Amino acid sequence: MSAHSTAHSFVYLASQSPRRQELLRQLGVRYELLLPRPDEDAEALEAELPGELADAYVVRVCALKAQAARDRLVTGGHAAAPILVADTTVTIDGLILGKPLHEDDAVAMLERLVGREHEVLTAIAVVDAEGALLEPVLSRSTVRFAAVERAALQRYAATGEPLGKAGAYGIQGRAAEFIERIDGSYSGIMGLPLCETAALLRVARVEF
């Protein structure tokens, strides 16, 4: 019987995001972290290509993260099991808004979003236990921010919450006060669309 046809009791999660861990627990999925080693340049995987569209960018980065995680599993001597990876980006006016470098950068990003709609794209991929990359899936959601004064954005940025988050905000945190409406997947905006994730994990024979 092949590794792919055998049921697995857990999945490796190749993400440092506590939100993704929380969402997997919500599904009842057991997971073990498979994080980048100190010698890996994880940030380099997220570099944009010239003229790259946000959809293509987030799927490509997700696939690169999946390959890196697979290499990590093999070289680290870990037990065979499926690997789950994800990447989230925020886009508006054709621009990809990554993670802010500092508070002022966060305020500048948020000022682009206020009073308007933007898209949140989360790509997810699973590497099955045999090492095959399942076709990445893209979750697309639209978020509308209220018209918010700069002072409120500065107060939010000063909390440190925007740092490390695509588009300089987390929907599950204090930024919820700015959000008038969403159309799409709330969990996808958080960073792991649960409907699509559950479907991929079942294809990879992960039990939950």
From TrEMBL:
Feature type site, description Important for substrate specificity: 19, 88, 172
InterPro entries referenced in this protein's UniProt entry, alphabetically: ITPase-like_fam, Maf-like
Entries under Gene3D superfamilies matching the protein: 3.90.950.10
Main location: cytoplasm
Keyword tags: Cytoplasm, Hydrolase, Nucleotide metabolism
GO molecular-function term, one example from the UniProt record: nucleoside triphosphate diphosphatase activity
Record-listed E.C. numbers: 3.6.1.9
CDD domains reported in the protein's UniProt record: Maf
Record bears the keyword Cell inner membrane: no
GO CC, one annotated term: cytoplasm
SUPFAM superfamilies: ITPase-like (SSF52972)
Top-level class of the enzyme under EC nomenclature: hydrolase
Gene Ontology biological process: nucleotide metabolic process
Catalytic function, reaction form: dTTP + H2O = dTMP + diphosphate + H(+); UTP + H2O = UMP + diphosphate + H(+)
Subcellular location: Cytoplasm
Pfam families: Maf
Active site feature: 87
Cofactor(s) this protein cannot do without: a divalent metal cation
Membership in a protein family: Belongs to the Maf family. YhdE subfamily.
Function of the protein: Nucleoside triphosphate pyrophosphatase that hydrolyzes dTTP and UTP. May have a dual role in cell division arrest and in preventing the incorporation of modified nucleotides into cellular nucleic acids.
PANTHER family according to UniProt: BIFUNCTIONAL DTTP/UTP PYROPHOSPHATASE/METHYLTRANSFERASE PROTEIN-RELATED (PTHR43213), BIFUNCTIONAL DTTP_UTP PYROPHOSPHATASE_METHYLTRANSFERASE PROTEIN-RELATED (PTHR43213:SF5)
NCBIfam families attached to this UniProt entry: maf (TIGR00172)
Protein name: dTTP/UTP pyrophosphatase
